[in-house]
């Protein structure tokens, strides 16, 4: 879709990355450390200072104490962390439950490890999880569950009831959890992010994965991390050392300073993106699209059933070529698409970009 957007000079609200740049302080520190000669391998599990700052952030946000040296592993992006966690726990024939619409790296990583992804489809408009259905899918081969909250692409977050049901399931069937929390600091309307880190019983069987790229608008740096109990971290690191070995050293020092000196950025992120969500939602009120509730992330789903009977892939192609706006069809996130007429927009853009896109969409 980004290639099509470039080809047709369309406004690109498709691929999930910010239009704006990383904070100036972070870029300055990156340049400083690169110029200072810190350009060689870092320790495989991450620079000690960054590990300590991650542990401090977890303590501040979730009131959970983790050992920075044994439980925190810095990775080359969250996607690497997801891949490594899956490889570390999946044996031949194991089943791992994932929820569609799902981030597209989950199933291939499971299959590469010799496992099988068990897809459970969530439906519009609420994309809620039927935990009784989940329990019915658990077999003797079930190894783990992957959750994603806040959720890409539905923009939903887990509730207290969801967490309680998940916890009960993990304990009853002795399952592991991979918790994809890359949008952890982007929740709206005062709703909290319910992290697997915040519950001791859940965390003891979890890999919790996050992304500096999402938090600091630097997706191209490919910097993330995985937090897990000591024994799970040991297994995680056995794989990690043969995938990337270590991650971008100057960026680790720059991120350490950013967390230490400008930690307010994390606390302000939710309101920053909520304002962008509201700009786009308000600008679309005069359109024939139905906007679905965006509870977190920087995505907004639109139902276009009042506008066209085209399938979502064809409709997105039409939007790019004829309307001048690029979006993502939701069906590509499903193993078996449900046939909903839903598209995803990314609002991590400048206000003028959002208003121009909305103006075009309101003409349909």
TrEMBL record:
Aminotransferase class I/classII large domain mapped to chain residues: 10-357
InterPro entries given in the database record: Aminotransferase_I/II_large, Kynurenine-oxoglutarate_AT, PyrdxlP-dep_Trfase, PyrdxlP-dep_Trfase_major, PyrdxlP-dep_Trfase_small
Transmembrane regions listed in the UniProt entry: none
An annotated Gene Ontology molecular function: pyridoxal phosphate binding
Keywords: Aminotransferase, Pyridoxal phosphate, Transferase
Cofactor(s) needed by this chain: pyridoxal 5'-phosphate
CDD domains in the record: AAT_like
Lineage top rank: taxon: Bacteria
Record's keyword annotation contains Transferase: yes
SUPFAM superfamilies tied to this protein: PLP-dependent transferases (SSF53383)
Keyword Transferase on entry: yes
One CC-aspect GO term: cytoplasm
Family: Belongs to the class-I pyridoxal-phosphate-dependent aminotransferase family.
PANTHER family hit by this protein: FI04487P (PTHR43807)
Name of the protein described by the UniProt record: Aminotransferase
